[in-house]
């Protein structure tokens, strides 16, 4: 579903964000993309979306990504940005959720049905008519996820989807992602979420793929994680002993 070959990207200041990455994500696969800050995770997602272009090739569902094919590719993708304010721009939450389906030419009835479904799924019905900038950070995060899912995407790209979620909403997000039966690529520092949701883990560091293996194998390798400024998931760490009263 996602095929990346020799992908490189250099920022205008000369800093290399990606250095010849090759990556294949088969249809229906759930992959975690982990690594330290500045590893290139967000840049890779932006390039898959066609928001940035560099060297190398990207194909989504057999369609080679070029500036001309961006609209075709984006019909197959949903993305949750790291900063929800990059995704929310309409006058109301409901209008933001409706924006993508409406631009895809769906009927007014189908657009409204998708909006209602996502509002209910993410507990946003009570704020449907509020401006997004009036929401809490957690509500903005939920609204941005709802916008992505309203597109009914074949591929879901997520950049730190659990940030700013309270424990209940985080659990619900994990439950949804576990039940998502299409291709998922999630860039995250939440290694416990990666452990719960994904079967495969790719470690990026300094713009390179430094490891690619089953999630449990990667996230259980303390030496590997420490070498790339990561730590064991909390569920793998020993609990500190409590002092007796």
Short description:
By secondary structure, the chain is of the alpha/beta class. Helix content is 34%, strand content 24%.
Beta strands, count: 10
How are the strands of the largest sheet arranged?
6-7-8-3-9-10
Biggest β-sheet, characterized?
6 strands, mixed
CATH class of one domain: Alpha Beta
Order of helix and strand elements from N to C terminus? EEEHEEHEHHHEHEHEEHH
How many alpha or pi helices?
9
- Give me the CATH architecture of one domain, please: 3-Layer(aba) Sandwich
CATH topology name of one domain = Rossmann fold
* Model regions low in confidence, pLDDT < 50 over at least 5 residues: none
Strand content: 15-25%
CATH superfamily of one domain: P-loop containing nucleotide triphosphate hydrolases
Looking at the structure, what is the overall shape?
A: globular
The chain-level mean pLDDT equals 89
Q: Cα-atom Rg, whole angstroms?
A: 19 Å
Structural class: alpha/beta
Give the helix level as a range of percent.
Answer: 25-40%
Query: CA-to-CA gap between the ends?
Result: 57 Å
Task: Report on the architecture of this protein.
The chain has 245 residues and is of the alpha/beta class. It has a domain at 28-39 and 75-232: P-loop containing nucleotide triphosphate hydrolases (Rossmann fold, 3-Layer(aba) Sandwich). Helices cover 34% and strands 24% of the residues. It contains nine helices and ten strands. The strands form two sheets. The chain has a six-stranded mixed β-sheet with strand order 6-7-8-3-9-10, with helices on both faces. It has a four-stranded antiparallel β-sheet with strand order 2-1-4-5, with helices on one face. A hairpin with a 5-residue loop joins strand 1 (2-10) and strand 2 (16-25). Helix 3 (93-103) crosses helix 4, helix 3 packs parallel to helix 5 and helix 4 (108-121) crosses helix 5 (137-149). It is globular, with a radius of gyration of 19 Å.
